[in-house]
């Protein structure tokens, strides 16, 4: 395997990982920020108030976007299988 091929595969894998994680985490971060601003404005320091909305948003995003996430992972895997002759030969 030449270094160029390895770097291409590594770059694609990292890009896929970052995209998949960002799709799941960014909505949770935005909701957490909104809840933190609400808690700061109202002086409510309840731990479950910040945890539960983030959990629900994360589960909702996984539920709604799960098909797309799995499809992206399957496309990447099939692409890697198709590259086996390029890597070996």
UniProtKB/TrEMBL annotation:
Its main location: membrane. Pfam families: Bac_export_3 (PF01313). GO terms for biological process: bacterial-type flagellum assembly; protein secretion. PANTHER family: FLAGELLAR BIOSYNTHETIC PROTEIN FLIQ. It comes from Idiomarina tyrosinivorans. The gene is fliQ. It is a multi-pass membrane protein. Role in flagellar biosynthesis. Belongs to the FliQ/MopD/SpaQ family. GO terms for cellular component: bacterial-type flagellum basal body; plasma membrane. The lineage of its organism: Bacteria, Pseudomonadati, Pseudomonadota, Gammaproteobacteria, Alteromonadales. It comes from the Bacteria. The chain crosses the membrane at residues 16-39, 51-70. Keywords: Bacterial flagellum, Cell membrane, Cell projection, Cilium, Flagellum, Membrane, Transmembrane, Transmembrane helix. It is found in: Cell membrane; Bacterial flagellum basal body. The keyword Nucleotide-binding does not apply. The keyword Electron transport does not apply. This is Flagellar biosynthetic protein FliQ.
